[in-house]
Amino acid sequence: DGGITQSPKYLFRKEGQNVTLSCEQNLNHDAMYWYRQDPGQGLRLIYYSQIVNDFQKGDIAEGYSVSREKKESFPLTVTSAQKNPTAFYLCASSVQGLAQETQYFGPGTRLLVL
Amino acid sequence: AQSVTQLDSQVPVFEEAPVELRCNYSSSVSVYLFWYVQYPNQGLQLLLKYLSGSTLVESINGFEAEFNKSQTSFHLRKPSVHISDTAEYFCAVSEGNAGKSTFGDGTTLTVKP
Question: CB-based contact (8 Å) between A89 and chain B?
């Protein structure tokens, strides 16, 4: 079955530690996205990529970094500079990254701070 | 710049009652509008979307939404809800060429027996 997988489902971060969230898709989509979801708030865009080896900052990129070395993979690193990382992180993809396209979401990773 | 306002954060209703989840948007150009649904601890799934043409769009599970350009609204309705419709619903807007969507804060629909 085609879809998006995110791992791990739960992730714990110690103070000062960088952690990496995995996102893989087998939909052959060009565009991929990372969102952060906090309780009672909508999704906020962290980073997005419309093509391999290229990505752009979203609305809340500070304290995060990404890479796009392969079409099917778009990992997100939460760095120690992100002071409030506790949230639900969602990865998504779309065919070409056009405005009229549906975004397909993974099941999410919940990040908790120890 | 585009923005989305979902006017109700919580909507409790009884089973088989009608429901309306309200969404208003602001944009300076033509827009594409989406409703996504999120079940607990899961990602979002597309419910329906408006791209162009008929202003009334429908989903396969009985929801519908009407694009109203003059009122800049895209309210979601269902004439009779089921317990299984309990979820969080997000309205989203995209504009221009890039697929950057702006999401509302979400409306939690709780269907009670």
Answer: no
B6-23 average pLDDT score:
97
- The chain B residue lying nearest A4, using CA atoms, is B43
Instruction: Mark yes or no for CB contact A103/B4 under 8 Å.
Output: no
Which of A9, A49, A105, A110 is the best substitution to test chain B (most B C-beta atoms within 10 A)?
A: A105
Taking the Cβ of residue A112 and every Cβ of chain B, the question of whether any pair is shorter than 8 Å is answered with no
CA distance A20 to A17: 10
Contact list in A for residue B89 (CB cut-off 8 A) is none
* Pairs from A40-47 (Cβ < 8 Å, separation ≥ 24): A40/B9, A40/B105, A40/B106, A41/B105, A41/B106, A42/B4, A42/B6, A42/B90, A42/B103, A42/B104, A42/B105, A42/B106, A43/A90, A43/B44, A43/B90, A43/B103, A44/B103, A45/B100, A45/B101, A46/A76, A47/A76
> With bands split at pLDDT 50, 70 and 90, how would you rate the model's confidence at B28?
confident
By CA distance, what is B44's nearest residue in A? Answer: A105
Report pLDDT digits (tens) over A31-81: 999 999 998 888 999 999 999 999 999 999 999 999 999 999 999 999 988
